Amino acid sequence: MDSDASTVAPILAGLRCKCPRCGRGDLFTGYLTVAQRCSVCGLELARGDSGDGPAVFLIFILGFIIVPIALMVSMRVDWPLWLTGLVWGVVILGGTLGLLRPAKGVVFALQYRYRRAEFEGPDDSDSDRTPGA
Ligand SMILES: [Zn+2]
Fold first, then answer.
1. What pTM did the predictor assign?
2. Which UniProt keywords apply (predicted)?
3. Higher pLDDT residue, 125 or 69?
4. How far is the CA of 39 from the centre of ligand 1 (A)?
5. How far is the CA of 120 from the centre of ligand 1 (A)?
């Protein structure tokens, strides 16, 4: 199947955790484990690497959203310290774990969109290259 990236919106494919090329195959095999290749179009997904980018984005975005809300709530409601820690701990952990997978999908899809050569270049993971050829 030929590349059809022009019809796949990278943000939507990433948020749905689907292949950045065809938008149909699953991007992950586990919670954050990227599949070796797309089951629909055969794109070698394992060549992409989003690194720490998704986690850094989430730190800034969730911090920007949750910290002011937590401060406003703590100024208006007199919760005991243990309840404050419990509530915001659950909110932060839930937000992080819930958004990390789509964030990684979006970063991965944007990498495919703007640095496609990493995905479609010569395969250097195989050891059958002939030296000096
Ligand atoms: Zn695909």
1. 0.78
2. Membrane, Transmembrane, Transmembrane helix
3. 69
4. 7
5. 13
